[in-house]
What does this fold into?
Amino acid sequence: MPLEVIGTFNVSRLQVLDHNGELDQEFDPKLSSDKLLKLYYYMLLNRRTDERMVKLQRQGRLGTFGASTGQEATICAATLAMGERDWFVPSYRESFGAVMRGMQLSKIFLYWSGHEEGNYTPEAPRTLPIQVIVGSQALHAVGIAYAIKYRREKESAVVTFFGDGATSQGDIHEAMNFASVWKVPVVFICQNNQWAISQPRSRQTNAKTIAQRAYAYDMPGIQVDGNDALAVYKVTKEALERAYQGQGPSFIEAENYRLTMHTTADDPTKYRKNEEVDFWWQREPLKRFRAFLESKALWSEAQQVKLEEQLNQEIETAVRDFESQKNFKVDAPFEHIFGTTHSVIESQRAEFLAEQLKRQQQEQEQERR
Amino acid sequence: MAKLNMVQAINLALDQEMARDSRVIMMGEDIGVNGGVFRATDGLFAKYGEERVIDSPLAEAGIVGSALGMAIAGLIPVVEIQFAGFSYIAFGQLESNVSRYRWRTQGLYTAPMVVRMPYGAGVHAIEHHSESREAYFAHTPGLKVVTPSTPRNARALLVSAIRDPDPVIFLEPTKSYRAFKEEVPEEEESYPIGKAEIVQEGSDLTLVSFGAMMRVALKAVEELQKQRKIGIELIDLLTISPLDIDTLCTSVKKTGRLVIVQEAPGSFSVASEIIALINDKALMSLKAPIKRVTGYDMVIPYFFREEMYLPHPEQVVRAIEETLSY
It folds into this structure.
C-alpha cells in the first residue's frame, strides 16, 4: 500500500474593498444604495456610541465597558446579511448587531451600568443577550439550529459570533463538530481581532489561519478582511444561503483589529506596540467605507456633518433615557430564578427588602446627625 | 398496572411524553440504536427515529450546551449523561447558562429541559461511575434536582420534570435501576416536584433519605420494628431542590428527633442543609441532636471497598437507637 495523499486543504481570503476604499468589481455584493447607507449609519453609530460610553465610564457614569472599535464592519455587515427569521447569538462585542435587529440603544447603557434590565429586549426577537463565558454561546447556536431543522423552518438559520481567544475553548470545537455531524443551519463567525485581552492571536493557536479549522469539520471555511464591510456581507450572505438550502454550517474568520482596549479596565500599551495599532488604524473599516460611498457619489462632507449631528442627538437621547430611569425595582433579581414559585426565594426576598429598608433608615438617621 | 423495574418505568415515562408532545426530543451518548447503556431509552429510537432520539457525539458539554439552545428555541430536550460522574465537563454550561438563562433574560428565554443522570454506587464499574454529587446541582440557583427511589415515583417524577418550566437535574440511582419491581399504572401519573413523600407515619423519630439510600433506610426501619414497637416517620425527599421544608419541619416538630441517611459525603451536603433548616425553623422542638449517616468525605472507593463506604442498615439502626436514647 503506497503512501497516498487522502486529503488536502486550501484557505481562501476575500477582500472586496481595499483599505483605500477601492472596489474589486468581481466580488461586489451589489448592495442597494439604501443598504449601503444603512450599513454606514450603523457602523458610525457603533463607533460614536462606543466613544461616548468610554467617556461615560471615565466619568463614573458607567461600569467597565468593552468597546468594539475597529470591529464595526464585521458586526454590522454580518447582521445586515441576516433576515428576521435568523437567530443572532453574540459574544459581548456584537451589541450593535442587536441594535440593528431592533434593540433599543439605551439597553446597552443599562447593561453596562450594571442593570439586568439591559438584557430584557423583547423588541429584538431571536436576538440573544451578551454572553460573557467565552465560546459557550456557540453551542446554544447549534441547538437552536437543530430546532430550526427539526421544525423544517424555511429561510431561517443562526449566526453566532466569538473571538480568536474563544477558539481555544473546547465549546467551540464541540459546537463546530456537533453542527457538522448534524448538518444544521448555523454560521460561525470568528472575529479575529488579534488580541484576547493581553495575549496575541499567536498565543491562542499556532495555526497559520483560524479559517483552516473548518477543514477539520468538513465545512466551508473562509478568511475575510473583517475591516471590509462588503466582503463580510458577501461571505455571510453566502453562508446563510447554504444554510437555508440545507447544506449545513459554515465558518468565517473575519480578520480585524481591536483598536482600543479589551475593556476600560485595561491598558493596552502594556502589551502591544503603538506601531502595530497605527498600522491597523490605517486599515480601519469606516474610513474605507466612506471613501467607497464617496466614489459612488453616495456621500459627501455635508452629509457626514449632518449624520454626525444626528447620531450625537440619538446617543444623547439614549443616555438621557437611561439616566432618567430611576425607579428600578430593587428586588427584581429575585424574579425569574425559577418559573414556579419558590418559598425560600420568596422569604429571602422579603428579608432582603426589610434589610434594604433598615439600611435606608440608618443612612437617613446618620444624615440627620 | 404492570410490574416494572425503574429502568422500565423511566422508559414508559419517556415513551408517553414523546408520544404526547413532539417538542420532546432526547439526546445522549448511545441512547439511540443501543437504547442507552442502562437501556432506559430502549425501543424509542425505532419508534421515534434518529431525529428525536439523537445519538450525539461523545461530548457532555456539547450535549448540555446544545440542549439549552434547543430549549431556547422552543423544544423540550431530555438529555442523558451516561453517568453522573461524567457530568462535570458539562457543569460549566449548567452553572453559567442553563440554570440562569431565564434569570438573565428576565423570562424572555427559558430552559425547560431535563438532564437525566444515572448516579450513585452499585454498578461495579471503574472510577467515575459511582458518585453522588447532588449537592453541586442543588447549590446552583435555577436548577431543580429530583431523585426518585422507586419505579413508580421515578416514572411519575420524570413526567413532571419534562413538563416543568425549569431545567431539572434528574438523578437516577443506578443501584435501584433493576433492584426491584413495582406496580406502575399504564395511565398517566405525575408527582409534584418539590414535594417529599411520607412513606410511613410515626411519632417517635423522623428518618429522612432519598435515592438508593431509601432502601437502606427502609431496611433499618423493618429491623427495628421487628425488635420493638416504635413509631418511625420515614420521609423520602424525592426532590432535593427545592426542598420540601414544610413536610420536614412538620414531621420534626411532631417527633422531636431526626436522622438523615445519604450516600454522598456528609460535609456541605443535603444532610447539612436539612440540619441548618431545622436549626432555623424547629430547633426548640428537638429532643435530641440530629444525626446523619452519610458517606465519608472522600472519593467513593472502587467497588472492592464500595459496600464498606456506603451507609448500612445496621448503622442506621444504631443512629436511630442513639437518638432515641439520648
